[in-house]
Design goal:
It is built from nine helices and 17 strands. The chain is α+β, with helices and mostly antiparallel strands. The strands form four sheets. The chain has a seven-stranded mixed beta sheet with strand order 1-2-8-3-9-15-10, covered by helices on one side.
Length: about 400
Amino acid sequence: MNILDRFLKYVSIPTFSDSKSELNPSTKEQFDLAKVLVEELKELGLEVCFDEEHCYVYACLKGNIDTAPKLGFIAHMDTSEDAKGNLIKPQIINNYDGNDIIVGCKVIEVKNNPDLKKHIGKTIITSDGHTLLGADDKAGIAEIMMMLEHFVISNESHGDIYIAFTPDEEIGKGTKFFDFSKFEADFAYTVDGKDLGEITYENFNAATVDININGVTCHYGYAKDKMVNSMLIANKIINLIPKETPANTEKYEGYYHLEEINGSVTNTTLKYLIRDFDRDSFEMRKNKFKSIIEVFNAAYGNCISLKITDSYYNMRDVIDDNKHLIVKAIKVMLKNRVESISDPIRGGTDGAELAFKGLACPNLGTGGHNFHTVYEYIALEDMEKVADILVDIVEEYAKVKEITKLVRKK
């Protein structure tokens, strides 16, 4: 099966995740794709293990040389809930001419998507404008499957290749039930980035801040010196938080983001997100909240509770000890005449969480664009090139007799 047929098959299966669900995985539809992948992996002759409770697909193509490190590749099966993710009807544009692309009632405009000019003459795949396409991350799945098929058919030299297809990555639960006993790779790559040539290994340190403010109510006509309005305290707290927000920061700049506020006179809750690439600055941001709440508790009789929960950390702390993963990826990009891109991820990845669980795991681009929107598109030739890059990465590691695995502690 060629990569286009694989990709179209995968996107035809709705697998949107649901952040409001308490199930694991969050939607039963993800099982439909998982079962298809289990059968395809078995047909390729891989050893397959399916976590039927939590919907993780693990597989291993045993190596034909025993000196190489064990290499892993990971992609996620779910799609974002930010745009409609079922009844996907892909549109295929052959020999793209460089002009705006009409997708149903929507237009992918060149002026807003300058990268389109890089794809003139290629085969472009979009949705029909009513849904997302699902290249995030079904392109990654298709590319990994093509890499596996290559080694099964060619019988070229390779070490053990481990595969994991995970659920619920889009809602931050992709590694919640990840089982390392079924994924024994020494090193791995997530294939979940955007542009062709993307090699990302820096991401935010992330934390969630939950503030609960208890007020005091009484008859409004007799409230003098009695009422404590929790919403007004919340307003004062908000005004003391630095105005570094997602809307006015970029690149390596961190931020504070007020994500939720719910309130009444008697009780108000605030939910903030903290993001920063630098670990010391990250800790300073958390301490900012602690010092503010300490002052207000002193003034209002300890009516405020504060909970700060770390979500994930910058994977660069681990990748710096395993730089060969980046060096070899860049070498392979050059071999394939692809410009490597190493911009920081202003977010997190499954790789970030896996890194601090002991698995160095940078992220590779799939070739997709405009993820999570109805304007999503990908070029067939870029998917084919990514599959070639994955093959070459495996071949690079097949030449290696020993690499020390290093993992820096949190």
